[in-house]
Structure formats: structure tokens, C-alpha cells
Amino acid sequence: MAHDAPQATGPSKLVIRNIGLILSGALEKPILDGDTIVVENGKITAIGRFKDVDIEGATTIVDAQGTTVAPGLIDSHVHPVAGDWTPRQNQINWIDSYLHGGVTTMISAGEVHMPGRPRDVVGLKAMAVFAQRAFWTLRPGGVKVHAGAPVIECEMVEEDFKEMAANGVKLLGEVGLGGVKDGPTARKMVGWARKYGIQSTIHTGGPSIPGSGLIDKDVVLEADTDVVGHINGGHTALPDDQIRCICEGCKRGLELVHNGNERSALFTLRTAREMGDLHRVILGTDAPAGSGVQPLGILRMVSMLSSLGELPAEIAFCLATGNTARMRQLDCGLIEVGRSADFVIMDKAQHSPGKNILESVQLGDLPGIGMTIIDGIVRTQRSRNTPPAGKVPEVVAK
């Protein structure tokens, strides 16, 4: 079972040099000019040309070998339970496997697979605080798991949200997975959550597992959560006219997930692009789930949306990084000075017909991951899950 990764114990300075391409994660400027990134004590301090940046005192130097550096990928929709184990598939080390798929941050949409999950108000609040504390302490492989997302029940009152917020809870699990399934009640509780700084997500579409139910456009629009969870269904999507109605009827986040309807994901992407609202589109996997664990789920979403959605690859990567970071108010997900130094270093897969990584992804291929870095610390090198990369970075000095 993957345990919490070691953290830096003293001053550190990481230099990544000889970068072939820097993907920023920002829609407004997805590609940055530079071949070197400098990180001090886990934060980005410089991005530019090797000759122009200060590398004095580097404690770790990575030669990127002309490969691509992007922000670590963010999975906006997971269902963790306890440590790096999921009872849904009785699988261990699933979070560590996601790290090998380039995911450095995860957002819980509710710890709903906890065996014996309490439904009473005292129990669900206690479980939320426990999950928030446990996952922020554990950090499997170094991955940042934002957990502690209670599934709301009808008996809750405003004071419950105030209490949870005071104890560090910042997320709600998917509205609709518990007893609250109607628009008016959901809107009232989402308003309480927002008042105390707790971000909300709603289940969208047909039932995902026995016990869940249909959440249609009317409930989604009335609830007014911060994120429209898996708008492409998890797995069963709403009809196209309802999806369009949601896209046009609110200005909240539009989450596309791997464990959803691919055609509906592409329809949502086209609709958001027509509206000039690509900044609202974020990506998740909705795993672990009945269809399993998908370590490469976010990469597969990026490739699918780029190739079949005719979206430039550098833009598709923004949906899995900077868009989510901004919507979720995270300090990672963008390569800019002052942000957390969470990176995935990639290259086109060996034998891909694409001339480079961007063309390769737009042709539908997955890139090969050569290294992941979280908080300026090298966490993995050659991925055990992706196709082998054409070129891989090396740690040349430490």
C-alpha cells in the first residue's frame, strides 16, 4: 500500500533545464517561451532561458532532454475512501497508479464508497472531518488529495455547514447522492455551504449505482452548485437539449468525466466553445467506479477531446490543469511564478505518427510520461502505465 511520501526537510532548489516545450495550463497563453524552470522550496521562482536564470545553489538538476513540461494533471472528480485503497474495486495503490498517469492533485466528490457510510448528521460530519485530515496527512506518493466531502442529508441545518467549515471542510460531495434530491432543498444548502466557503458539486444525469437517482436540468439549475458534476453523465447522460440548457442557463463549472458518455462530452465541449466558455470546462474521472480505476483517465480525456473534439492539444491540457486550478482555487495547475511546483514531464510515445507531442495527442495517442514532480520533489520517473516516451528526462545532479 502506498504510504505518505517524504517531504523536503530543508531548503531546496530544483532546476529543470533543456526543456523542449512548456505548457502553461492557461488558456490565454497555453505555451510559454523558455527552456528552464527554477523552483525554490516547492514554489516556482523563475521561468525562462537557461542563460537568464539563476541556478546557483541548485540541490537537484533535471535535464528534460528536450521533452515537454506541463503542470501536474488535476482530477476534479474522484471517490477516495481510506488511504490508497478502494473498496469499490478492492484495489490498493490506485492513487499511486494515477500519479504514474500524470495526476498530482485529486478532488473528492464524496467518500461515498466507505463501507457503512453514516447517513446521520453527526456521523457524516465526523467522517468529512476525518477524511479531510487523513488525506492531507497521508499524501500517497506525494499526491495532493483534497478530501472530506460530505454527502448532504435533508436533516442538516445552517449550523452544520458553519461547524464543518470551521473544522477545515471545504467541499461538498455530489448533491443528489444522499437524501437531498430536489431543487429547493439543494439550493438552500448550497447557499449555506457557499456562505461558509465550502464548494459544491452536483450529480448530473441518470443513476450511477443502485441508490442514486436521476438529477435533471431543472434540479441542476435550481441547485446552482459551483460545479455541474459529470455533465456528460456518470455513466448515463441527460439528453442534448438538457445539456445545452444547463450550459446556457448557468455560468458554473462544466465537468467532463472519463466514466461518462463520450458523445455527450464532445457535445458539451462544442457547446461551451460556441459560447466562448471553454474556461468553464474541467476534467475528472469519476473513479473508482463500477468500470474500475483509470490511472490514465485524465490523459485519455485530453487525447479524446483534442482528437475527436478538434481542440488543439495545448488547449486540451488546460482543461485538465489551469481551468480546474482556477475554479477549485488551488495554487497548482499553472506554470507561473509563485505557484506550487507540480509538474508532469512528457514526450510523444515511441512510434506515434505525430511529429511532436502536440500533434501526437491531436491524432489521439497518449503521451509517454518520463517524470512527475510534486512540490519541487521528483516523485516518479519513467511511468509504469503510459506508453514509453520517445525521450525521457534525467536527474543529472542532486
Automatic annotation (TrEMBL):
Give cofactor(s), names only.
Zn(2+)
GO cellular component entries: cytosol
List the InterPro entries: Amidohydro-rel, Metal-dep_hydrolase_composite, Metal_Hydrolase, Metallo-dep_Hydrolases_sf
Cite a single GO MF annotation: hydrolase activity, acting on carbon-nitrogen (but not peptide) bonds, in cyclic amides
Pfam families xref list: Amidohydro_1
- Domain annotation Amidohydrolase-related: ranges: 263-376
PANTHER family of this UniProt entry?
COLLAPSIN RESPONSE MEDIATOR PROTEIN (PTHR11647:SF1), HYDRANTOINASE/DIHYDROPYRIMIDINASE FAMILY MEMBER (PTHR11647)
Q: What is this protein called?
A: Enamidase
Which species does the entry assign this protein to?
Bradyrhizobium frederickii
